Every structure is written in C-alpha cells, then in structure tokens.
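During the reporting period, our protein records have gained a structure token line. A sample record is set out beneath this paragraph:
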Amino acid sequence: MNPKSARTLVIAAAVLVVLGLVVGSPAAGLLCFGLAVLLAVAPAAFGRGAMRVAGIVALAAGLGLGAATYPDYAKHMEAYRAKARN
C-alpha cells in the first residue's frame, strides 16, 4: 500500500474517532466510529511498519468506542421510535 494513502486513511480515521467522541448524539457518534473502522481496515491489513500499528490502533479504538456507544444508541433510538409513534 502506498505510504501516503495509508497515512491519509489513518489520519481520517483518527479524526472520525475524535469527532465521534465530541458529537452529542449517540447515532452520530456510532456513525463516526463505524466510518473510522472502515477507513482503518486497509492500513491495518496492508500498511507497513508504523502505519500498520496506527491502523490497528485506530481500528481497535473505533470498534471499542462503537461497542461502548451502542447501548446509548439503542436507548436513544427506542425513545425516538416511541416519540414518532405518537
């Protein structure tokens, strides 16, 4: 993999992880974490050296934070569904 491409994907994934932490909505946070995971897969699988490690870190952060955010997301969406029915 081109080192510039791997670096760009890792930086974009890191920005999305930070954005997911900052944003107030659980749905938006989960979306950001999911996109970060998608962007981090290629550097984690095909990167070299430090970019592979950074990709694995971004991948693990996105997966972990996404898993931690999912219960809040489910509760938020249940409240939204209840409100939309009425």
